[in-house]
Design a protein that fits this description.
This protein has helices at residues 39-47, 74-78, 93-96, 98-112, 130-144, 234-237, 241-244, 265-273, 279-298, 339-355, 363-371, 422-433, 475-482, 487-503, 514-523, 540-543; strands spanning 30-33, 51-52, 65-67, 85-86, 123-126, 150-154, 164-166, 178-182, 189-190, 193-206, 209-214, 218-221, 262-264, 309-317, 323-330, 451-452, 458-459, 463-464, 467-471. By secondary structure, the chain is of the alpha+beta class. It has a domain at 30-89 and 362-371. The strands form four sheets. Strands 9, 10, 11, 12, 13, 14, 15, 18 and 19 form a nine-stranded antiparallel sheet that branches. Helix 1 (39-47) packs across helix 10 (339-355), helix 9 (279-298) packs antiparallel against helix 14 and helix 13 packs antiparallel against helix 14 (487-503). The chain is globular, with a radius of gyration of 26 Å. GO terms for molecular function: ATP binding; tubulin binding; tubulin-glutamic acid ligase activity. This is Tubulin tyrosine ligase-like family, member 2.
Length: 547
């Protein structure tokens, strides 16, 4: 390459295949967006000093983060280099497609009982389960004297497309695969308007399962008052912004709701304070829905340490303050339609980037340069060519193991073969330059980083920005998720925590001996978690301290 040999001032376009131990890439953090979007992600990353990928100036693999709204193909996961990350885990369709979600929840309910898996309305997949649906429809009609209400949703559409509600089976007409669910006809209302919650969940890892829920979210309102007498009025029964922003009352004042159709979660917390409920228990039940839903696919998702997943859980609360799962959204919308969107989503994206543990200079790529012969990283927009030199290892001070930030020492440099094809080069890089991002390099001091306990277990940070770690939440769930996922133990711990919140007991549980419970509490002293949801999330240990 003429550029790499110092014979040209043009940006290098020859990523990868050089002789004489030469590798040319830009060292600055680079993001790549599929189909030029979403715009909010571009805005946040550019404000942080990232550069956008330009295939005319950069090599095919010269990027750090690839973001797209649709799934990546298997080869893109297989060919990831150590410093590259994707915004999707593979094989999450098991919860993000409505029919797959229904099957997986039914499977878990059959395997582990309905005591925990009682948060999804009765669901049938049509046309394959039409006979079962008809039997249930007739059973309810005979028992109640009238039929129940049902909602129909196409299995693979979003934004409220194709959804309708009916009471009489003669109104059931469909021309594609759909799910049909018992319609929750007694929703909690605010000023007579129906609403649901959009909860933003980041799955940092499926193996081991590591889950964060964002403190801020959205409350999405219908824009016409709720009435069962008008089942065909979508502005009364659906909360999708893509529908309601075109409603006739979108811009008018609507009681406590106000103008538009969204609140922030912070505003919803103020509303809850006026209600006579156990607020902490409500948040924990929503938290349980997230964890229990993710458990349905956790064992089947391949290990992908270079990936994260942002999901949108839609939760409806009924008049008895019971939360229900409506659906799980793949690539939740990041468009800014109102001030609530601006308040929530920009911080959300920023916290998600922080959760990926990036730094202003990517340590992995720096080491890749030095291993391949550069004294300093070469930036594509730099006017001069890099200077070739022998690799000189510099000793770095080893940080304290308990330190919040530390810089990893350079790895020993193996001898790179003089000639390699592209596949051989990638394999060489993965073997000799790879360190998982869980180890990380130097990180911003304001971000709590992962640490390792005395027994070698990896402990993810309890909070990053407004992302609260909700799983694992204690020593038992950490251990149960480290190697092969122990779902039975996880379910027992979820039940145990929820039962303690219900009863308010802090000394012992009927299902476990006092000594065992106290031993677990002692073990959790160096592994604490926050209870997600309240304005100021309390530590679990503080909630259950004995007096």
């Amino acid at each position: 390459c003429q550029v790499c040999l110092g014979l040209s001032d043009l940006p290098c376009k020859c990523f990868g295949l050089h002789t004489n131990k030469v590798l040319c890439m830009a060292a600055s953090l680079v993001f790549r967006l599929h189909d030029r979007g979403p715009e909010l992600v571009r805005e946040v990353l550019l404000e942080r000093g990232w550069e956008e990928y330009d295939k005319g100036e950069r090599g095919e693999e010269d990027w750090n983060l690839y973001w797209r709204g649709s799934p990546f193909c298997n080869s893109q996961y297989r060919n990831l280099l150590p410093w590259q990350r994707l915004n999707h885990h593979p094989k999450t369709v098991g919860i993000t497609r409505k029919d797959c979600l229904a099957r997986n929840l039914k499977r878990m309910k059959a395997a582990f009982g309905s005591a925990l898996y009682d948060f999804s309305p009765t669901t049938f997949i049509l046309p394959s389960e039409y006979t079962r649906f008809l039997a249930e429809y007739n059973r309810l009609r005979m028992a109640r004297g009238t039929s129940a209400y049902w909602i129909v949703k196409p299995v693979d559409l979003s934004k409220g497309k194709g959804i309708f509600i009916f009471e009489d089976i003669k109104d059931l007409v469909y021309d594609c695969a759909v799910v049909i669910q018992r319609y929750i006809s007694n929703p909690l209302l605010i000023s007579s308007y129906k609403f649901d919650l959009r909860i933003y969940v980041c799955v940092k890892s499926f193996r081991p399962l590591t889950v964060y829920i964002h403190q801020e979210g959205l409350v999405r309102f219908a824009t016409e008052k709720y009435h069962l007498s008008s089942l065909h009025n979508l502005y009364s029964h659906l909360t999708n912004t893509s529908i309601n922003k075109f409603g006739p009352f979108y811009k008018t004042e609507k009681g406590q709701v106000g103008k538009g159709c969204k609140w922030t979660m912070s505003k919803f917390r103020h509303f809850l304070q006026s209600q006579d409920i156990k607020e902490l228990l409500l948040w924990q039940r929503i938290n349980n829905i997230v964890t229990l839903t993710l458990l349905t696919i956790a064992a089947s998702v391949p290990s992908s340490p270079n990936c994260v997943e942002l999901l949108g859980f839609d939760i409806l609360i009924d008049a008895k303050f019971k939360p229900w799962l409506l659906e799980v959204n793949y690539s939740p919308a990041l468009t800014l339609d109102c001030q609530a969107d601006v308040s929530v989503k920009k911080k959300l994206v920023g916290d998600l980037i922080d959760l990926m543990n990036y730094t202003s200079t990517d340590g992995l790529r720096d080491r890749a340069y030095q291993k391949c012969g550069y004294k300093q990283p070469f930036k594509a927009n730099h006017p001069s060519a890099p200077v070739l030199s022998k690799l000189n290892h510099q000793k770095k001070r080893k940080g304290n193991k308990d330190s919040e930030t530390q810089t990893l020492p350079l790895l020993k440099t193996p001898c790179q073969p003089a000639k390699m094809n592209k596949r051989q080069f990638k394999q060489w890089m993965k073997i000799h330059c790879f360190q998982t991002f869980h180890s990380g390099s130097q990180r911003p001091a304001r971000i709590a980083v992962e640490r390792t306990r005395g027994n070698g277990q990896h402990v993810p940070p309890v909070r990053v920005g407004d992302f609260i770690r909700t799983f694992p939440f204690n020593t038992a769930t950490l251990k149960a998720s480290q190697h092969k996922l122990d779902i039975t133990t996880v379910l027992q711990e979820i039940h145990r925590l929820t039962a303690r919140l219900i009863s308010g007991q802090s000394d012992k549980m009927k299902s476990r001996g006092e000594e065992e419970v106290m031993a677990d509490m002692d073990a959790d002293n160096d592994f604490d978690s926050l209870l997600w949801g309240p304005k100021d999330p309390p530590l679990i240990s503080q909630c259950f301290k004995t007096t």
